[in-house]
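Continuing from the previous page...

OK, I double-checked the sequence for SGNH hydrolase-type esterase domain-containing protein against my notes and this is the correct one:
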Amino acid sequence: MKFTTLAAMMVAVAVFGLLIDGHDCKIVQFIFGDSLSDVGNNKYLSKSLAQASLPWYGIDMGNGLPNGRFSNGRTVADIIGDTMGLPRPPAFLDPSLNEDMILENGVNYASGGGGILNETGGYFIQRLSLYKQIELFQGTQTLIRSKIGEQAAEKFFQDARYVVALGSNDFINNYLMPVYSDSWSYNDQTFMEYLMDTLEKQLKLLHSLGARQLMVFGLGPMGCIPLQRVLSSSSACQDRTNKLALSFNKAGSKLMEDLSSQLPNASYRFGDAYDVVNNVISDPNKYGFSNADSPCCSFGRIRPALTCVPASVLCKDRSKYVFWDEYHPSDSANELIATELIKKFGFSRVGETDGHSPAPAIAPSPEG
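Thanks. Re-ran it with the corrected sequence; updated structure tokens here:
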């Protein structure tokens, strides 16, 4: 009897151990970013002026209610993750987040208005910079180590996929605005060096925390977003702003190559979709769009209306607009960008998943 009891206990311990090991075999994503990747963190920052918590944001997802995404639908990271069979990570600040959810779905730390630099987006009052997001990730690691142990946690974080998608705010909501000291403390070259030096330190820090498979998203032609166009008397793209985006992409691509060769077991890639977005903006009809210079959600002739609000007027067919609001691409544009990156890098499904996602899916048929 005693032997049978002891054997049963040993089997139970072994099964429990397998369950713990099962957690560290699940491949998830950890996403660091700005409003292009935010899935709800800012709605829990009560003082933040960068919000997507009002209609009509989220109109083409799930129940059509705002879900924290700064678009009518999915983000680029949503679409790429779905294609790879990865679960959509919930917002870090979601009150329901716990260790089990992290082990099953990963975490999204992205914050509207956030930048690579701590000073970026200051006039939004509250936002999470990349350094702050990494600090929160360190706290996440402490929770997971307590839950499944040091060894299993190390494997869990090293097997995970990482996305870093920031940079546009460092220009549009920092360097290019005279209210920020960076605008007069640097020139184009020295600011880029400052930005890349900071990003290099941050990516090395993530590597020290276990990030082995990581992609940094490049910048699109940010001088062509509606907010930049409306600042021009001719409504043309801002050439200097676009040149800064191209410089960022060139420097960022080189940084990824250097880090991949320097850091042990690092597979660091740079996702540059500038050309495809520029092509869409230059010839929208070729790609199925009818408008590439103004937002679908606008406040009539009052421009720029910096955010989409309930009193805003929506375009007739959201699938035909490249831009959802003054800053952000529409779901259709995000799908085009994601598809380009998927083709460029040959992304395929990762491991075995059940395909379940706690995040809302795209609505089947948007209505005007």
